[in-house]
Amino acid sequence: MADPMKIRATLQGDTADVRILMRHPMETGTRKTSSGVVPLHFIQSVIVQHNGKTVLDAQWSQAVSQNPFLGVRVKGAKSGDKISVTWTDNKGDKRTDEVAVTAGS
Amino acid sequence: MKLLRRNFLKLSGGASAMAAAAATGLFKTGAAWAAPWNKSAFESKAAAEVQKNLGVTNLIDSKDITITAPDIAENGAIVPVAVTSKIPNTQSIAIIAENNPFPLAANFDIMAGGEGYVSTRIKMGKTSDVRAIVKADGKFYTATKEVKVTVGGCG
Q1: Do B100 and B117 contact (CB within 8 A), yes or no?
Q2: Are A73 and B115 in contact (CB under 8 A)?
Q3: Which of B13, B26, B73, B122 is most buried, taking the most CB atoms under 10 A from its CB?
Q4: ipTM, 2 decimals?
Q5: CB distance from B88 to chain A under 8 Å?
Q6: Global pTM?
């Protein structure tokens, strides 16, 4: 099972500023070690949902950095709304985490 | 023996059809439905080819797209890139590092409720233009920003 994501969703006006940090090696398939080339292993798809409704559907390549960061903004959000994030990698591994929107400072 | 061979062909044919269907995204599991991964665009090796495979036509330069990225990236493995589109009805944002071995880094489909903004970190092999392509109301808009890379981040 993949490591959990760190997600923070803070309200700014009626927009939720969502910051996501995933843990993933994001191997390009070209990196070499003493035991040979490390095979391609990267997140292909990321879906951000607001109260169960998809707001962002991302397709990624291996060019996204290791332990990827993703920042998005969700319109019409309220404090307590649910933001869930799901990623799927090229080996079929997936992970979903959910947080509630918190009021901004 | 003939019968066996026929059965074998049938089976293997079926299995490969299944694999093809799974690859094209006919079978989907889980609650979240992902858009099919655009294999041809992601495996394109030239920036022009990426645009063709994304279905980009009549690219318009736009001042309503802001790319926030460093002028000089010391570490090519982590280049923070943020794209803000002020174009109404922004449907998708693609981030392309034009001199990368596979230029298309990411493509974001934005649904109703999402703002025309994405921020992420990408790897860059060498100094290159970072191009953002925004699709809004079926039209394509673009902007570029050059990022100088001191140490490459591929491989």
Answers
A1: no
A2: yes
A3: B122
A4: 0.89
A5: no
A6: 0.81
